[in-house]
Amino acid sequence: MYTPHTKADREAMLKVIGVEKVEDLFECIPSSGLFPDLGLPEGLSEMEVLSELSFISSVNETTQELTSFLGAGAYNHFIPAAVDSILRRSEFYTAYTPYQPEIAQGTLQAIFEYQSLIAALTGMDVCNASHYDGATAVAEAVNMAYHRFRERRKRIVLSPRLHPHYRATVHTYMEGMDLEIVGEDLEPDCGTEELIQLIDDNTALVMVQYPDFFGRIYDFTELGKAAHEHKALFAVHINPIALGMLKPPSEFDADIVTGEGQPLGVPLSFGGPYLGLFATKKEYVRKMAGRLAGETVDTRGQRGYVLTLNTREQHIRREQATSNICTNQGLIALASTVYLSLLGKNGLQDLAELNYHKAHYAAEQLSTVPGYHVNMEVPFFNEFVLHCPVPAAEVNDMLLPYDILGGYDLSKDYPSMTHELLVAVTEATDRSEIDYLIEVLEEESYE
Amino acid sequence: MSEPTIFELSKPQRKGVRFPRPDVPESALPEGFLRAELPLPEVSENEVVRHFTRISQFNHAVDIGFYPLGSCTMKYNPKINEETARLPGFSQLHPLQPEVTVQGALGLMYETQKWLEAISGLDAISLQPAAGAHGELTGVLIIRAYHRSRGDNQRVKMLVPDSAHGTNPASSAMSGMEMVELPSDERGNVDLEALKTECDETLAGLMITNPNTLGLFDENIEEASRLVHEAGGLVYGDGANLNALLGICRPAENGIDVMHFNLHKTFSTPHGGGGPGSGPVGVVEKLKPFLPAPMVAITKEGDQDTPPLYGFVTPEQTIGRVKAFHGHFGMVVRAFTYMLSLGENGLRDVAMTAVLNANYLQALVKDTYHIPYERLCMHEFVAEGAWDDAPEVRALDVSKRIIDFGFHPPTNYFPLIVPEALMIEPTETETKETLDRFAETLIQIAKEAREQPELLKEAPHEAPFGRLDEVKAAKDLILKTELPEDYGK
């Protein structure tokens, strides 16, 4: 059990306090609702709990049991065993925020290395210690841009191919801020020129996704230029695995880079906890929310790390802080740090290319099935839009009895895209699974 | 004692992991989009594992020793929670799978909502918020949406006591509210007279932490709630200190309309070196329509032969999404495991033991350390770490000296209303022996403060690192390292 006292301990302690029984410690609480009957069951032994939870988990069908082509912001990637082995070190997972750096150098050095790895991957100058997930990182980018212009610039240009959950989160976060959010209503297939036309001198931020929500890769050099011509900030949301092969967004002169870090060694876990990546240029470091580890020395001359620039944060600035963020995703950031350390330069590049090749094989094969079509003209990474002969939901329903999760039904977010499935293929997708999908689609032909 | 960075361990062509060769034909890579270089380190698996194992040993952690960090509830994190969260039936679920394939996960979320409702007395729970501060933002947005739905657009004033955690005013401000600080009275409660003068038609609500950050149950909570409600406002409860109240009383019965829970404090999910947390939000009936979307509900009732069907629903007047997908599910599994393990009586025992431990420790040290609001405390108490006859010594020095005895220091300099604050939260999982040793240590340090203040000023002596130069860190601003320029040449 988790509470250790014997009867004798308790009596001795009560005597020191000077009360007769533990209940007396609660005399300041209004007596009407004291010690309520919660109507909850009695506790279970560890054996019983494990058996109960194992049963509940067995009711679910996992991505391992099914053949899954679901992505849309959460990806099934292989996780090397060493990642979880490090995460299970309780020196890491049972510590908290490194408020006392003399006994938290493990956590602090890990954060510093995380910042360094993400900066190297994105090409940016600085990276914070993380946000909750990709969506909240995007919302914080909007928040930062809004405060950068001292709340005077009101327009935010968002690509319609920025993840729909992220855009929804921006709306929720910025609800009290009197902003004008534009761009989302453009045709889902619009080009960057149409986004450029929306940028004006009242624009605080222009934000796109790379590869975008449909998996496509665009060159954002012109868009970045256009944003900067109006002195707006330019932000790019990335998939970190794609950056194993693709140009980093720094080459588009991005001012802010956000990302969903889940692909970096974090299990799908039904949607969380994940990891919000956030990096920026050095000139904006004081405008950035979130914790930061910085290098310094100790009294013995040893190199060490501390949380720095704390005066930006809520515990000092209170209502003047740009963001209320306190806890970050410490352990998940550690997972991505170990993951990137293991893969390194060559591993990440190999992985990115493996994803690319598998997705392209799948897209080509799917295009051969009568009635199905993939637009191969715009380059894509590990995810693509599959046009189906019938509404996408019907295809998914047809595939499920074959134990296939077909993909994400895009009509949920883009009403005009009724027949489109978003299909993701990673290194974890075996060729035989792709071939099985093709086989089933051919068998269940709608022609 | 320093450890090289992972970049310093790098040597060209080393690899920590190998992927299979493509089992499909290779496609042409997109020319013009490829990066010229990827400046990541190259390290073998053994070296990566040793590196992170070595730096892990620089940390203090709950599994190593006492960690009485006030307001953070650093209780023991049961190992079974780590096992259940990693069951493939939980860890390998995609968030967008069809609901029929994830009925176990949805059922677990639904049950967790029900447990939190029973514990708090609130009527509905959203598991979506990712952390306490995120829950606060969600709660304040719900309050805002409620007033606006009634055409009460002028209600923008949020009252926050001066003892509040910094996230409270920051969350209010982020939601477009105007923050007004309330003083505390001489017993550490919300000052009712000050509250009354702010109760007008612009009042949106009161954000209150109960027990407050002094570790005291706010004796005015019901009267304060009544005043706020009478003026048309709502009461937000910061659930950071709920550990003291499990099975003792229900916040909703004290007048709380909306509150967040910290699963990483009260419900034993690990703090992870600073996250991930989880901050579910609960509300009373009238605020239910405003909860963030989606939430889990029974979409088709079951009967004797078939279980109910669970699904995601969107509340009619929802404030929207506060993050992608459905919250920190992995943390919810851990918290649910914990609640099942404890059950009703176990939960009550948690609160009673946490409060017993804090009062015991307070009683042991109160003659040595000034307790500014000396009452029976709840799960924690605040002492002053400074003495008139030891003018050189500050609370920070006391904390650093505590490290030498193998303990984590208390929270320093918070709450702001107590000078030289040491905020001490022992939690329920500590033995009497540990508390005795910690009290002896504090008493010894108080003695040293007078007799050998340099022992404190120069502490820690026994930690792997001495005090770190924070001024230099902020001045030099070295926020990353990288491979040397001549790497691989």
Structural description of this entry:
- By secondary structure, chain A is of the alpha/beta class.
- Helices cover 35% and strands 14% of the residues of chain A.
- Chain A has a seven-stranded mixed β-sheet, with helices on both faces. A four-stranded antiparallel β-sheet of chain A has the order 11-12-15-14, covered by helices on one side.
- In chain A, strand 5, helix 9 (221-229) and strand 6 (233-238) form a beta-alpha-beta unit.
- The N and C termini of chain A lie far apart (63 Å).
- The model of chain A has no long low-confidence stretch (mean pLDDT 96).
- Chain B has 489 residues and is of the alpha/beta class.
- Chain B has helices at 45-56, 79-85, 88-91, 103-120, 132-149, 167-174, 192-198, 221-230, 329-365, 395-403, 432-451, 453-457, 470-476, and strands spanning 124-126, 157-161, 178-182, 203-209, 234-239, 258-261, 281-283, 295-300, 309-313, 381-384, 411-412, 421-424.
- A seven-stranded mixed β-sheet of chain B has the order 1-7-6-5-4-2-3, with helices on both faces.
- The longest helix of chain B is centred in the C-terminal third of the chain and has 37 residues, at 329-365.
- The two termini of chain B are 30 Å apart.
- The model of chain B has no long low-confidence stretch (mean pLDDT 96).
- Classes of the chains: A alpha/beta (447), B alpha/beta (489).
- At the A-B interface, helix 1, helix 2, helix 3, helix 4 and helix 5 of A face helix 1, helix 2, helix 3, helix 4 and helix 5 of B.
